[in-house]
Amino acid sequence: MEIVAVVNQKGGVGKTTTTINLATALAAVGKEVLVVDLDPQGNATTGFGISLKRGHGTYEVLMGDVRADFAVQKTAIPGLSVLPASPDLSGAEIELVPMENRELQLKKALKSLSHKYDYVLIDCPPSLGLLTLNAQVASNSLLVPLQCEYYALEGLSQLLNTLQRVKKNLNPQLELMGIILTMYDTRSTLSAQVAQDVRSHLGSRVFNTYIPRNVRVAEAPSFGKPVLLYDMKCVGSQAYIQLAKEILRRQGALLAA
């Protein structure tokens, strides 16, 4: 089981959109996929048409009140399930502080699911707090959506430093799966310049696929659907399909090595 934390401490860079649509693309090629909504905003939950309501969700799982497999909900997409966010998740950052082994809560919770899924994608909140730390400790790898804007590289260096600290102290298996450039505007020289700068600094750790700005991607959440279901033929959908293919190729190459 490959557990991937989709993480960036900046908001509005496409973490949830990437989580939802990459998960859908992986399920479409026959993978069993679980999305773990660890963001109190709950957008990865509502993005699949699941309502945010009181009950079993990531908050109850983190607090040890319920097993993860009891909280998982199936989506309308074959092979794709969601561990939804619940309203109380917003208090988890504070409530985790006094807990013993607080950074290991999600890792322990996901053990009961290890035999059920090929991929687990964790949608992280826009911060480097305890929820994101739990995601990094529970994961094999990090996927970093990076918006094509001027300040993109500044926050990225902080995130990569955090990755190294987590790897050294808490999770030696954690690796960077890659960086995906999002909100790429083909008409903008700025997007091209940012992409060039990121690739010159990080080389092959940046995916060849980029996610373009696309109105259909922006519209899809209001219908409670991934863009691949909302408009399969739009450029945004096709980009996420290509990203899934690139990830599977990279994973295959690693396994063969």
TrEMBL record:
Pfam families hit by this protein: AAA_31
InterPro entries xref list: AAA_dom, DNA_Partitioning_ATPase, P-loop_NTPase
Segments forming a coiled coil: none
Every AAA domain range: 1-175
PANTHER family according to UniProt: P-LOOP CONTAINING NUCLEOSIDE TRIPHOSPHATE HYDROLASE (PTHR13696), PARA FAMILY PROTEIN CT_582 (PTHR13696:SF52)
Name of the protein in question: ParA family prote
The organism of origin for this protein: Candidatus Bealeia paramacronuclearis
